[in-house]
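Board notes (copied after class):
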Amino acid sequence: MEKTTIQLNVGTLEKLKMLKKYERETYDEIVCNLVDDALEESLTDKEILEIQEALEEVKKGQVYSIEEVAKELGVLLK
């Protein structure tokens, strides 16, 4: 595998050290895990569009009260 050198601030290096799951885990493994996690948590274009549509509905007042939702779901509120 071809390798490269990257520059990190000392503070960043310390943060990476804290993320080690085991003593001999490499920084490459740590960075790969972080990238994988970030990619998994990314929203799809469809999800972003649905969120934008929902926000527009809220701005227009097209919302349900908690009482209406509870009634529809058959939940009793205290």
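Comment from the instructor: The chain has a mean pLDDT of 94. The helical segments are 10-18, 27-41, 45-59, 66-73.
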